[in-house]
């Protein structure tokens, strides 16, 4: 402000100078003016102040009055080049200084976000003022408007200082503004961020589109008039229409005609009242394919607001398979021979079959929706509820009621024993238990009878075992006790024969001979009986036994007879077992002895020791080519003293095979013969392999099973 004040003072000073009423001519003597004129280089005023009239006031006329100054051409010695350089330069500067504000103003008007717009305006004004100054400077060569020039300069000075003053508070703010580089960087970052966001958005929408398209359910959107707006790939496959064929048509096209009006009515009612009869609820509907066939579907509808446009998304799931499965399940349950109950987690009966109706005497209508405890005797209800909860905490298929006093209660209050099989089943996401109920009244009675029979059998067995033991005891004692009198009978018969010597009549000698032979025969029988008794009563060893060695010992004992009969022996490699070596040697010796004894007269005896392994059990045998045995005697010959031939034919006491059977059975095996008359015999017996041979019976009776 002080500058503009100063300028104004100077300007007024110029006015005061004018006010001294001296003209240019008066102020400068003629000589001076003449000199200037003659040389054409002096300052010659165009008009005098006197001609222009007195300038008594500072006014527009004063401002444009140029009478007291010569044009610049006349002031000083100007060469054309010099003068025109000034004029041209000033004119060009004016041109530029006028264009710049125009551009600036244009820029400010266009870019409303330019910071500090007022500074721009001041700049524009300041530059315009500068330009005007230069224009005046150029004009002064012809029009010496020095006062105008002064005024323009004052204005320029004022505007320039105003600009300076306005700039000062703005500078810190301008400095705080981000530089162009920083702006560029942040712009680039922003561009990148947006590009990433756009890419993510594209990704998301692609993913969303593919999820929607590959969803297991049909997804269809409709507008508020029921017109289809979109349909996914599953909808195309489910309904047989292409999406573009569905879009733009009413959704009723996907329903049987009978349902269309109802659907439109729902939609209208919803739009009017907002009451969602359909919206959001998954419900079963009938849907229609392009070919007119229908299927059961589950429909869930949700509402969307896009802007202020309302549309609905329907998710349709084809449940025809599920429906078929449910029907199959229902029929299976119905056809089951047992009573079947479907019970919910809270114990409520959901389904029963005809068998349940028959078993409990209820109609199914009386049972469905009732607690399952209705079918349980009152005394068991509490424990049943606890059992039921226990089952639902860890549901798994299991039987129940077996071995427990589990009873059902009929409608008439009577009770009956039942067996229950429980199976957890999940139907439409809900956990149930499918219980199969069997009336076991009959079975319980049979079991009672069987238990009574088993008890009786145990008693009989015990009595038999006792009698066997007594019999063994008796045979042992009897054999021992009989041996002594027999020995005496024989020795006294011999003594009598000796004592009488030659006095013994022939007939008496023959009688004594019969007595001696009979006594000897009886002694031999008693000895055999004792051997049999020992075979059943002796303490049996349990040790590793090589059957090879047992067979060797038996062969050694029979060597004389083998030689005598010229028998041929064949043997397969025999295994080792666990058992009693003496008993097993005796077994081989008896069987091979019989094979030698009962050989066919017309052929050389061939005896083969056989071995086979079957299911972990050794099947061993002694095979001959002898006289053979008739089928009806194959079992009898193992009984004590059973013989098929008289002593005249083959000697023996009939105890050998009985001993064999005892030996085999004490080892946990059994013995039998395969034979045909005159075809030879194959005596076979089983022995447990290895440690299983330990599982033997000490009682002499073969165990029925060895666990
Ligand atoms: P024993 O040999 O003392 O007669 P066993 O108990 O050994 O008594 O045999 C009983 C009967 O079985 C014999 O009398 C015989 O008739 C028949 N038998 C046994 N082994 C054979 C065999 N290898 N071939 C034919 N018959 C046999």
What's the quick description here?
With 707 residues, the chain is of the alpha+beta class.
Given the C-alpha coordinates, what overall shape results?
elongated
Please tell me how large the radius of gyration is: 68 Å
Question: Pairing-aware structural class of the strands and helices?
Answer: alpha+beta
Number of strands: 18
Distance between the termini: 126 Å
- Uncertain residue ranges: 1-56, 692-707
What is the makeup of the main sheet?
6 strands, antiparallel
Strand content: 15-25%
* Mean of all residue-level pLDDT scores: 82
Bound molecules: adenosine-5'-diphosphate
Number of helices: 22
- The level of helicity is 40-55%
Can you walk me through this structure?
With 707 residues, this protein is α+β, with helices and mostly antiparallel strands. The chain has helices at residues 2-19, 24-27, 30-38, 49-52, 60-64, 80-110, 117-139, 146-176, 180-214, 233-239, 243-246, 257-273, 320-335, 354-360, 364-367, 381-393, 441-500, 506-537, 547-557, 559-565, 581-597, 656-666; strands at residues 218-223, 228-231, 283-288, 294-306, 309-318, 339-344, 349-352, 398-400, 407-409, 415-427, 430-439, 543-546, 568-571, 576-579, 606-614, 617-623, 671-675, 681-688. The strands form 4 sheets. Strands 6, 7, 8, 9, 10 and 11 form a 6-stranded antiparallel β-sheet that branches. The structure holds adenosine-5'-diphosphate.
């Amino acid at each position: 402000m002080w500058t503009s004040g100063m300028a104004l003072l100077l300007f007024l000073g110029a006015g005061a100078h004018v006010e001294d009423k001296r003209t240019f001519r008066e102020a400068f003597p003629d000589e001076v003016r003449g000199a200037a004129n003659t040389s054409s280089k002096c300052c010659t005023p165009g008009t005098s102040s006197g001609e222009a009239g007195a300038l008594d006031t500072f006014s527009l006329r004063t401002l444009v009055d140029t009478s007291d100054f010569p044009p610049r051409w006349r002031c000083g010695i100007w060469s054309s080049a010099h003068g025109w350089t000034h004029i041209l330069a000033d004119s060009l500067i004016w041109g530029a200084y006028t264009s710049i504000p125009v551009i600036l103003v244009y820029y400010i008007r266009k870019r409303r976000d330019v910071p500090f717009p007022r500074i721009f305006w001041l700049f524009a004004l300041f530059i315009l003022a500068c330009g005007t100054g230069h224009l005046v400077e150029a004009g002064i060569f012809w029009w010496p408007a020095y006062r105008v020039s002064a005024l323009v300069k004052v204005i320029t000075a004022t505007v320039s200082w105003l600009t300076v003053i306005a700039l000062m508070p703005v500078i810190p703010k301008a400095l705080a503004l981000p530089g162009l580089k920083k702006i560029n960087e942040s712009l680039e970052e922003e561009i990148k961020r947006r590009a990433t966001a756009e890419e993510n958005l594209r990704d998301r929408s692609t993913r969303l589109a593919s999820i929607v398209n590959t969803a297991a359910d049909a997804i269809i959107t409709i507008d508020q008039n029921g017109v289809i707006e979109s349909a996914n790939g599953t909808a195309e496959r489910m309904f047989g229409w292409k999406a573009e064929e569905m879009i733009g048509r009413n959704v009723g096209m996907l329903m049987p005609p009978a349902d269309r009006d109802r659907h439109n009515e729902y939609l209208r009612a919803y739009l009017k009242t907002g009451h969602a009869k359909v919206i959001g609820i998954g419900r079963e509907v009938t849907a229609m394919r392009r070919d007119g066939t229908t299927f059961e579907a589950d429909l869930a509808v949700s509402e969307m607001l896009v802007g202020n446009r309302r549309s609905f998304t329907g998710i349709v799931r084809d449940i025809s398979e599920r429906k078929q499965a449910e029907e199959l399940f229902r029929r299976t349950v119905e056809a089951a021979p047992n009573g079947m109950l479907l019970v919910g987690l809270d114990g409520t009966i959901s389904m029963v079959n005809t068998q349940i109706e028959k078993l409990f005497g209820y109609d199914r209508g009386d049972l469905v929706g009732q607690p399952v405890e209705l079918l349980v005797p009152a005394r068991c209800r509490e424990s049943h509820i606890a059992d039921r909860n226990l089952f639902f905490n860890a549901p798994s298929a299991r039987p129940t009621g077996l071995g427990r006093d589990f009873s059902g209660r009929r409608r008439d209050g009577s009770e009956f024993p039942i067996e229950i099989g429980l199976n957890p089943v999940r139907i439409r996401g809900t956990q149930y238990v499918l219980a199969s109920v069997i009336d076991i009244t009959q079975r319980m009675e049979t079991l009672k009878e069987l238990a009574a029979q088993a008890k009786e059998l145990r008693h009989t067995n015990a009595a038999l075992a006792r009698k066997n033991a007594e019999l063994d005891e008796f045979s042992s004692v009897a054999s021992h006790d009989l041996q002594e009198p027999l020995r005496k009978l024989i020795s006294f018969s011999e003594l009598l024969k000796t004592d009488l010597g030659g006095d013994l009549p022939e007939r008496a000698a023959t009688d004594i001979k019969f007595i001696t032979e009979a006594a000897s025969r009886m002694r031999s029988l008693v000895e055999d009986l004792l051997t049999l008794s020992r075979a059943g009563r002796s303490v049996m060893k349990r040790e590793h036994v090589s059957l090879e060695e047992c067979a060797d010992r038996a062969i050694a004992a029979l060597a004389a007879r083998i030689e005598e009969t010229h028998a041929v022996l064949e043997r397969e490699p025999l295994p080792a077992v666990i058992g009693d070596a003496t008993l097993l040697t005796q077994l081989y010796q008896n069987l091979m002895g019989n094979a030698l004894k009962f050989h066919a007269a017309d052929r050389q005896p061939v005896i083969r020791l056989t071995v086979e392994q079957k299911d972990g059990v050794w099947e061993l045998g002694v095979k001959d080519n002898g006289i053979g045995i008739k089928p009806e005697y194959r079992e009898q010959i193992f009984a004590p003293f059973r013989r098929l031939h008289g002593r005249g034919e083959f000697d023996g006491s009939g105890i050998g095979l009985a001993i064999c059977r005892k030996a085999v059975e004490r080892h946990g095996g059994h013995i039998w013969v395969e034979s045909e008359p005159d075809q030879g015999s194959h005596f076979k017996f089983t022995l447990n392999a290895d440690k299983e041979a330990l599982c033997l019976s000490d009682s002499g009776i073969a165990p029925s099973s060895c666990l």
